[in-house]
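Researcher: Structure for this, please.
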Amino acid sequence: MANTRGQASLESQLITNVEGFERIVAGVGVVDIDAAFGDITWSDELATTREIQSVDGHFLELDGTWFTLDSETGVPTKVGFSPLRGLDTADNITRVGLEQVLGVETTRFEASLDPAIGASIMGFSGEEMTVLDEATPSSLVATIWVDDQGRMIRILREYQAESADGDPISATTMDLLNSFSEPSPINVPETADAIPAPI
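Model: Predicted structure, token format:
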């Protein structure tokens, strides 16, 4: 699985459900797996945004306006630039068997991940994070499909927890990687045209 490197096309879906409120965001783009750079267009029921992360910074385009994001101005979709996030904590890895993924023969694995990192890697918004209670039990599991070249081409993560009031909290992420290649420069907007994101 160490062969999942370089640049790849990405299809991603982030689903969170906090106290009965479900949020679904779908993304399509390209990511540089090693550098956590990329260019992803995200869509939900409210809007479509384009997000770029590169050596030049972190940018978000909304309704034709580019915003610059500093390290303190986080957006939940930023996790999309790190499709292998959390997998370094994998434990209890089980080989399930062979399975086709978009016509590619893969081996399917299931694993437990460190639940303590769930809140930070599952695409929760800042508002949703305020409901999470680190003291309550939680679980984080992954299903991983690996092709015959040792590349992870589909990663499913499922997180379960409770709020301080005992209400269920869940999150699911699905990342599909294909068209692997050597990294190429990520085109970014002219920084002169980007304004600081509102805090």
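Researcher: Any notable elements?
Model: Residues 158 and 172 are 5 Å apart (CA to CA). The mean pLDDT is 90.
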